[in-house]
Specification:
The structure holds 2 protein chains of 2 kinds. Chain A is an alpha+beta fold. Chain A is about 40% helix and about 15% strand. Chain A has a domain of about 140 residues. Chain A contains 7 helices and 5 strands. In chain A, strands 1-2-4-3 form a 4-stranded antiparallel sheet, with helices on one face. Chain A is elongated and about 75 Å long. In chain B, strands 1, 2, 3, 4 and 5 form a 5-stranded antiparallel sheet that branches. In chain B, helix 6 packs antiparallel against helix 7. The longest helix of chain B is centred in the C-terminal third of the chain and has 20 residues. The chains are: A alpha+beta, B alpha+beta. At the A-B interface, strand 2, helix 1, strand 3, strand 4 and helix 5 of A face strand 2, helix 1, strand 3, strand 4 and helix 5 of B. Strand 3 of chain A pairs antiparallel with strand 6 of chain B.
């Protein structure tokens, strides 16, 4: 199946957004506003979904017109694109979305046609699968790891570089003892924060909407 | 800019295709998926975490309610999503320089595709069919795909060293340590924030 590469699943969801002309602010705009306020670092809902590598949400207003002599095409609905890359199987991931990031899922998909809510997890999974597009070709550069094993490796790399720098010129029994302590500390130290720390926030995104 | 999170850039593009061309493109992707050596250039570029192409038939857009109007489209559409490292210009330049044959084999079936060379008309086409990302999450924002691969090699080397060095004398440990340093030295570059650019 093209949705899978090694241990990585590539999920593509296309959810039609509700069109309601009676609203002052349309659903797609409300959705965009909500997404612009959502943290993108370790406080992101995807950081809670610990198997997520990279994920995006995009409001697609229309298809493109590439110029004459191509014919002009237009969509009758706007669509929310949800593209995510994670380790593990689809049902578990969707189940975790509905239970562990319930508030986020409700806030986003309440703007979409046919969203059944998250109280009935089975109905939510069925809804997402109705909106799923099968991937025609999926490329994953590293596809034999999990998020946890990758973050562990990145932590190891940084810690070892620091240890080597600090112990340059140390040899023999002293080095052996220091390495033993270092390796024990490393195996007990917490994993890197998923999504990075909070300091990367873009200040403009915190300015309240006028 | 929400297309960027740390070292990763999220690209979205959509291009129209005549329906009769879609099966040809799917056949090409099938071959690309089965014959792994054909992915060599894509792999060797080593700056794409994940990328995917999704073809959507003109009658295949999700329809979930009778209140939702049915789409009435003339074309099938090819969606492209990429998570790459570096700037947009570097990405398109690299594609045009190294992967031009593969790119042309994919997008030649899309309407008005100008070819990936010369790069100027290719960039104009991409900017026309690209649309922006509203929200982008990256689990390791400070790490490019090369950083990830280097870290995995370091982790494997260190795990093996820790396992094999337990019963060594201090002198033997010193020699093994030097070997470890030589092995992992190319992979110990530190990760950090991405360069700025377009």
């Amino acid at each position: 199946m093209s949705n899978v590469s090694g241990k990585t699943y590539g999920l593509t969801i296309l959810s039609p957004i509700i069109e309601d002309n009676r609203l002052d602010i349309c659903h797609s705009m409300q959705l965009r506003w909500y997404l612009s306020q959502l943290p993108r670092d370790c406080r992101s809902p995807f950081a809670q979904l610990s198997s997520t590598y990279l994920a995006r949400l995009v409001v697609m207003d229309d298809v493109v017109f590439v110029g004459h002599p191509a014919a002009e095409d237009h969509l009758k609905s706007r669509y929310l694109i949800f593209e995510t890359n994670f380790d593990g199987d689809l049902d578990t991931y969707l189940q975790r979305m509905a239970t562990e990031t319930k508030e986020f899922v409700e806030a986003v998909w309440k703007h979409c046609v046919g969203f059944p809510g998250t109280n009935d997890v089975g109905a939510f999974i069925a809804y997402m699968k109705k909106c799923q597009l099968n991937t025609t070709f999926f490329f994953a550069d590293v596809n034999d790891q999990t998020v946890e094993s990758t973050l562990t490796a990145l932590k190891t790399q940084a810690a070892l570089a620091h240890f080597m720098e600090k112990h340059e010129g140390v040899a023999g029994a002293e080095l052996q003892r220091a390495f033993g302590e270092f390796y024990q500390r490393l195996s007990k130290s917490p994993a890197l924060p998923r999504g990075g720390n909070q300091s990367r926030d873009i200040r403009q995104e915190k300015i309240p909407h006028e | 800019m929400t297309n960027i999170n740390g070292k990763a850039y999220a690209m979205n593009a959509i291009t129209p295709m005549k329906s009769w061309k879609t099966p040809i493109l799917k056949a090409f992707f099938f071959i690309l998926g089965v014959v792994k050596p054909l992915q060599k250039d894509l792999k060797n570029l080593s700056f794409i975490h994940f990328a995917r192409w999704v073809s959507v038939g003109r009658n295949s857009f999700p329809h979930l309610s009778e209140q939702q109007p049915r789409e009435d489209l003339k074309y099938d559409y090819l969606l492209f999503f990429s998570n790459f490292n570096g700037t947009w210009n570097q990405y398109i330049d690299a594609f045009s320089s190294v992967l031009y044959k593969g790119l042309d084999a994919v997008w030649i079936w899309s309407e008005k595709y100008p070819g990936s060379r010369p790069v100027t008309s290719f960039k104009r086409y991409i900017s026309l069919v690209q649309f922006d990302t509203d929200y982008y999450y990256n689990v390791y924002p400070h790490s490019a795909t090369n950083d990830v691969k280097a870290a995995l090699r370091v982790h494997d080397a260190l795990t093996a060293f820790a396992r094999n060095s337990q019963s060594l004398s201090p002198a033997e440990f010193g020699n093994a340590w030097l070997e470890l340093k030589a092995t992992v030295a190319p992979d110990l570059g530190s990760t950090g924030i991405a360069p700025e650019g377009t």
